[in-house]
Amino acid sequence: MFLGTSTKDSRRQFEALALPLLDSLYAAAMRLTRHEGDAEDLVQDTFMRAYRFFDRFEKGTHFKAWIFKILTNTFINKYRRQVKERALEDDSERATVSAQFFSHQATDAAANPEAHVLNRLTSAVVLKEIDKLPIDFRMVVILADLQEFSYRDIAEMLEVPVGTVMSRLFRGRKLLQKALTQEEGTELSTGTDEPLDLAEFRARKKLA
Amino acid sequence: MNCAELDNQLMHYLDDEVEAYQRLAIDEHVAECQRCAALLASERLFLDTLQAANSGVENMAPPALKKALAVRLDRADDGTRRMQFLKVSAMAATLAAVTVASHQGWKTFKRNQYVEDVVAHHVRRFPMEIERPTNRQIEAWFGGKLDHRVSVPQFPNRVAAGARLLNVREKQAAYIRYDDEKGDGAQPGHMGLFVYGDKPGDVDVGTLPHPEVGSSNGFNVVSWRDGDVVYQLVTDLDEHDIQELLPPSPGNAAGPAPTSAPVTRPNRLEVQPASMQQSR
């Protein structure tokens, strides 16, 4: 039967490419929206838009970059207004990549491994600090550090120059390092670095 | 490479955005510089921490999301199938309409060919094979010459002037010429009637009282069908006068008779054997 055959093939091809990325998309959506319901909606919208425009995807090219571009665009166009993010200050954009990447504080900590306890921070604390980043920094940190996209991929996704991507990434990391370094004391005193299972994590989050 | 250069390039190095020669230079420097080796380790740890945080189970898509996606994809497929069905249906409807239109066009084309042919024969004024016959004589003369019976219609104020065999396209036809009852045949008002068998239905015309009226070369042609026999009357009468020859339409049936029509004029074409027609 002619009817539906192409639809079936298309569905199968789409699922083969997209479903393995579902967790990555959801993780990124969580960091962007900072809300489970919004993240699920964002992923669903992304999936459906990607499926609708799947015929425009050039086979053999970078599908993950393609669908993440849809994710970021959907977020920017729809969810960002709801989230009411703080706009970047103009001078933040002017920070140059040639400036020292790492603060003296971080360098000093690196020089003293005993005091450097980054690896003792729980995932929840790290994610909480990422979530606090202004959205333009957060987007590049999510895409570069959590999803491991190249500068060029990110520049194409966000439709900004590569230099802007590097500048935002530099600034975002710097803010994050500073926040996490301050967080270390709190983290050590709470002693809650045991891993949580998913159900417990969600239960706690709902209570919070 | 020195420490300041490494500081500038470390971000790109960690992000795997440096050329191979730059990577080599940094590797060589780090191997000899404790400060930069510690810095590199610290920053790698920082990035690994971010990665590790992101790979926790809490960042995995909930099963409900997977189910919701499957449902929405199914719905999208249903919508696509519906759209495809509607598109195909629309195409089929268009095709059917075109087919019907072209079928109608073909039927009209064929009918016009017969109309043109009967007019072409009528204007030639071929010699008649029998002259001034009665209707009964005409029917008798055609008997056995054609595959069908020829019933001679009676028209108001017209008399049969003659009859002969003619071909209308590939069909053998009876041709009956009528003249004005009071004229000499040279005056306007003479008519020619073609009667031929058309079992295949090549000539798409209605039955009385709904004949087709066409025209060719200044003549009107009134065509109707009685079973497998087609009648085509060629005349120079105008449409109004033709109407008087034809049976009244259902809408006019209850109305007054046309005042221009003589009282004695029959108001129906009598397409029946002459023996059964009313005497005049």
Main structural class of chain B: alpha+beta
Low-confidence parts of chain A, pLDDT < 50 over ≥5 residues?
85-109, 187-196
- Radius of gyration of chain B (Å): 46 Å
CATH homologous superfamily descriptor of the largest domain in chain A:
Winged helix-like DNA-binding domain superfamily/Winged helix DNA-binding domain
Oligomer: heterodimer
Tally the structural domains of chain B.
Answer: 2
Short description:
The complex is a heterodimer of chains A (208) and B (280). By secondary structure, chain A is mostly helical.
Q: What is the topological layout?
A:
The complex is a heterodimer of chains A (208) and B (280).
Chain A: H1 5-18, H2 22-33, H3 36-52, H4 63-83, H5 90-93, H6 104-111, H7 123-132, H8 135-146, H9 151-158, H10 162-190, H11 198-207
Chain B: H1 3-14, H2 20-32, H3 34-54, H4 63-124, E1 130-131, H5 135-142, E2 158-168, E3 171-180, E4 191-197, E5 212-216, E6 219-226, E7 229-235, H6 239-245
Antiparallel strand pairs in B: 1-2, 2-3, 3-4, 4-7, 5-6, 6-7
Helix pairs in contact in B: 1-2, 1-3, 2-3
Please explain how this structure is put together.
The complex is a heterodimer of chains A (208) and B (280). Chain A has helices at 5-18, 22-33, 36-52, 63-83, 90-93, 104-111, 123-132, 135-146, 151-158, 162-190, 198-207. Chain A is mostly helical and 208 residues long. Chain A folds into two domains: 5-83, RNA polymerase sigma factor, region 2, helix turn helix motif (Rna Polymerase Sigma Factor, Chain: A); 90-207, Arc Repressor Mutant, subunit A (Orthogonal Bundle), CATH 1.10.10. In chain A, 35% of the residues are buried. Chain B folds into two domains: 3-55; 116-276, 3-Layer(aba) Sandwich (Protein Transport Mog1p, Chain A). Chain B is 44% helix and 18% strand. Chain B has a seven-stranded antiparallel β-sheet with strand order 1-2-3-4-7-6-5. In chain B, strand 5 and strand 6 (219-226) form a beta hairpin. The N and C termini of chain B lie far apart (130 Å). The chains are: A mainly alpha (208), B alpha+beta (280). The interface between A and B is large, with 62 and 45 residues.
